[in-house]
Amino acid sequence: MRFIFKTDYAQDLKLAKHSGHVFWYGTLMLALLAAPWLVAEYWLAQLTFVMIYAIAGLGLMLLAGFTGLFSLGHAAFLGVGAYTQAVLTNAGLPFPIALACAAGLSAAVGLVVGLPALRVKGIYLGMATLSFGFIVEEVFARWESVTGGNAGIHIKVPDMFGWKLASGESFYFLCLFITVAATLAILNLLRSPTGRAFVAIRDSEISAQSMGIHLARYKTLSFALSAALAGIAGALYAHKLQFISPDQFNILQSIDLLLMIVIGGVGSVHGAFLGAIFLISMPQVIALSKDQLPAAIGQAPGLQAAVYGIVLIAFVLFEPLGLYGRWLKVRTYFQLFPFYRKGLFKRQKSFQKSDRLK
């Protein structure tokens, strides 16, 4: 078990709390930088998709995991960013400018969608965001002069002021840079007064309001920041596929994003990445194991959906903290062995009267 004795205020400002963090995250970064020379092109593409979904997962994690506002229409923000990037890139704008516009427009749309969060919560907020997702999908399909309608739209390769990122390796490094920047931004946001306000709202809106936190301001801000990250992920998603259509941003995509953070671990930055790895790797695992299963199961058309449903139910029942929660338990077990206590991670009941009356 590691104990950290702080002797300087500067220690609270460091993202890496001890030398172990520096070593392991440094090793991970070196492995990611060397990935184009270590793995095949197909697996490099899958790793690129993991980073794209991780950016979207960070946005949804900020909204759901740290502010307590669940969204069932988050794929709409992904679509807004993707179509904005496609239209502006095809019009000749450089990639950084188009990406900034995609993030800004997605944030503006998220700000509008966040307004219902001021009056509704829980399942009613989910219904409101779900309805918004259907509306945006219909707009993508009907606005043919801009989006191409159901026929879809092609997008050019990223253009960095004359430098075209046409290869998979160059686009991988671009996604890696944006993913690292987004992760550092979220980590710094969460330890700022704004991030602490988000967490306070998640834990108890009544207590947060009594401490002077402006609920309307921080809820809409959370929606805007979450939508901006989803817009950035959508822009990268469009460039990676080089073709987008309205059916790529439907309710199933929103469910996949929500499934990603639940399985990864709600309320942790690590959970967004673990969930993205699960979401991208699970179809590959299912495809590789089909030949080992009986024909009646392996060739069933709904096999992937059934596996997703079973995994989600298993995590909700047996591991609500997700993959990251399971890792924390395993790590703590070996750190405390043989003094590990079984009920160490047992969730505590609410002790505030205001929470019991809600």
Can I get a quick summary?
The chain is mostly helical and 358 residues long.
Structure description:
The protein has 358 residues and is mainly alpha-helical. The chain has a single domain (22-280), classed as ABC transporter involved in vitamin B12 uptake, BtuC (Orthogonal Bundle), CATH 1.10.3470. The chain has helices at residues 19-38, 41-65, 75-90, 95-113, 123-142, 144-147, 168-190, 193-203, 205-210, 215-241, 251-264, 269-289, 295-298, 303-318, 322-336, 353-356; strands at residues 153-154, 159-160, 163-164, 243-244. The chain has a two-stranded antiparallel sheet. A hairpin with a 2-residue loop joins strand 2 (159-160) and strand 3. Helix 2 (41-65) runs antiparallel to helix 10 (215-241), helix 3 runs parallel beside helix 5 (123-142) and helix 4 packs across helix 10. Mean pLDDT is 83; it is low at 348-358.
Q: What is the assembly state of the chains in this entry?
A: single chain
Q: In order across it, which strands form the biggest sheet?
A: 1-4
Which geometry do the CA atoms define?
globular
Radius of gyration: 21 Å
Based on secondary structure, the structural category is mainly alpha
SSE topology string: HHHHHHEEEHHHHEHHHHHH
Work out the helix count.
Answer: 16
CATH class group: Mainly Alpha
The proportion of residues in beta strands is under 5%
Write down the CATH topology.
Answer: ABC transporter involved in vitamin B12 uptake, BtuC
- The helix content is 55-70%
Number of strands: 4
Q: Cα distance, first to last residue?
A: 38 Å
CATH architecture: Orthogonal Bundle
The main β sheet shows up as: 2 strands, antiparallel
Q: Which residue ranges are poorly predicted, with pLDDT under 50 across at least 5 consecutive positions?
A: 348-358
What is the typical, i.e. mean, pLDDT? Answer: 83
Whole-number count of domains: 1
